Amino acid sequence: MLAFRDVIVSPYRPEADVLAPRPKYEQFLLRDHSVSSKMAPTINRLPRESLYEVPLSEDSGLVRLPSIAESKWKVLVLQRWVGRVERIEDDNFVAVLSDATNPTNAPEEVELDSVEVSPSDLPLLVVGAIFYWAIGYCDTPGGQRERVSTLRFARLPRLSQSRINKVFEKADRVAALLDGE
Amino acid sequence: MHLGDGDWIVVDSCVERKTARPIALEYLEKIGVDVASQVRLVIATHWHDDHIRGLSAVLAAAKNAKFVTSAAHSLQDLTRLAVLSGDFAPQSSATREYHNIIQVLLNRRQVGERRDSVGPIKANANKKLLTLSGRNRTVDSEVFALSPSDGVLNLAEAELRNALTAMKSGRRPVRLAPNQICVVLWLQVGSLNALLGADLEHVSGTTEGWQAIIKSDERPNGLAGFFKVPHHGSDNADCPESWTTLMPPGPVAIVTPYSPSRLPREVDIARLSFRTDQLFLTSDLAKYSLPRRVNPVEKTLRELSVKRRALMGQMGHVQLRCSAVGPDEPRVTLTNGATRCAVPLRYA
Question: A73 exposed, middle or buried (CB, 10 Å; 0-12, 13-18, 19+)?
Fold first, then answer.
């Protein structure tokens, strides 16, 4: 008798942008529900090979659970943008987004609440700042799926004056070449 | 713009979203123009993103063209900005394009071309940029710059300095130059004159903006029957005197909408329609639409209460054609969502 319906539905779309490798459904653990709950084997008691290579089509009253041995955070990014802060208002800011998932999409202007910005990124929220915004799913090691929106501001190293001077020397040589007859 | 006898100039650039190619190149190729030999000038009126995207690709393709930019820009500052941007900081379209333009110009100089044959040519008020005349031509043509005036040449310096400061701290410069330093163009093709207003604004005083052009004794004579309305039809670029001094009554006027600034506004359209009954828009802001994304993304955007607005729509085209040697009504062809604002004219 089945305690849970053994269904695996892939939420992954072929066009989606997947940062992490796809989950290996073959590596899911099978737990035999014909065994009484008192006698149900724990993961530690199972021989290691039983964690792997179980045919997906098998329907023998077993419930699949994620393999702890193989579990890790997995991220599926559905949409990515690169944003540029245009102006900052009281509790929100206006930015222009370029679609990094589908660059043929038109740029958009969005108004975002400042509270969406991580406290550690707030000092970076200035006009002209670049940020990256992603929406997607995050699968936890425990097998839970969460829909997430992550907004991170670009952190670029400040250039030293000596490095800037070198760049300017290079630029000035180029300018002189262009300006000369 | 066609200067007659197969010679063309390209003023500013934007790109077709789906192909990522400059609109000007796609259009010229479509009508059979050999861009490499027939384009004589490639002009950057000013370094704002909405005027500059794809211009380096246009210049690279136009192997016979000189490059023209505003004299208000210090070549040294602009090059510093482009190189700094290219090496370290997030690039804007403007800095990226200038970086690429520098490469094109350097390549041409390194094979022995002289500056006066490739550019950059610095445009300022009342400077003649191109003359096409001679026995082998059916019409004589000239291209003049009407701005920037002497009074604004220092404005770009401060703006570029701000941009450099932003770059140094890893930010993207929002603006590279004020509108007042842009290059307004006057074209004479046979008996026709055209005035391309770029983004020049109308300010008090006679040393800058449209008043500087109107008060100038050195600008070319004549009235322009064709007018590219400045700064997307905004109120702050509309100089009433320019319509009476530089144009005949009822010129053909074209407005290029700019969604980020929500220009032109309805009140702008109404005002401009009062000035001429031949007012055209290259696209309709009201028809811009947001792309539909997968359900979880749309749902998240709704939950976050994100206010969104499309900044670009279908790239429309207003094509004007008329004879340069005799009286002729302009033939107007509107494609890809370009519209007319007043009573219908004669469409081709």
Answer: exposed
Token pair for B99: 């970086």
Residues of B in contact with A109 (CB under 8 A): 259-260, 308-309, 311
Burial of A3 (C-beta count, 10 Å sphere; 0-12/13-18/19+):
exposed
> Could you tell me the two tokens for B251?
């010129």
Give the separation between CA B39 and CA B1, rounded to whole angstroms: 9
Distance from CA of B114 to the nearest CA of A (A): 6
Show Cβ contacts of residue A27 under 8 Å, excluding neighbours closer than 6 positions.
A51, A52, A53, A67, A70
Question: How far is it, in rounded angstroms, from Cα B248 to Cα A150?
Answer: 56
Collect all residues with Cβ–Cβ distance below 8 Å to B166 and sequence separation of at least 6.
Answer: A128, B172, B173, B174
Tokens 């653990």, residue?
Answer: A29
Q: Would you state the pLDDT for residue B88?
A: 59
Instruction: Give the best residue of A135, A173, A181 to mutate against chain B (max B CB count within 10 A).
Output: A135
Q: Give the span between the Cα atoms of A148 and A130, in whole angstroms.
A: 20
The Cα angle at residue B16 between residues B197 and B345, in degrees rounded to 5 = 55
pLDDT tens, position by position, A104-148 = 888 899 999 999 899 999 988 988 888 999 999 998 888 889 999
Q: How far is CA B41 from the centre of its chain?
A: 13
Nearest-CA distance from A170 to chain B in Å? Answer: 8
- pLDDT(B326) > 80: no
How far apart are alpha carbons B343 and B346 in whole angstroms? Answer: 10
ipTM for the assembly: 0.73
Tell me if A96 and B260 make a contact (CB, 8 A cut-off).
yes
Residue-wise pLDDT for B79-98, tens only, equals 887 877 766 555 566 778 88
Whole-number pLDDT of residue A49: 41
Does A178 contact B105 at a Cβ distance shorter than 8 Å? yes
> Where does the pLDDT of residue A24 fall: very low under 50, low under 70, confident under 90, or very high at 90 and above?
very low
Tell me the CA end-to-end span of chain B in Å, nearest whole number.
19
Task: For residue B20, list chain A residues with Cβ-Cβ distance below 8 A.
Answer: 103-104
Residue B332 and residue B342 in contact, taking contact as beta carbons nearer than 8 Å: no
Q: What part of B 259-278 touches A (C-beta under 8 Å)?
A: 259-260
Residues B80, A172: C-beta atoms closer than 8 Å: yes
Cβ pair B157, B74 in contact under 8 A: yes
Q: Where are the domains of chain B?
A: 8-248
CATH code reported for the domain at B8-248: 3.60.15
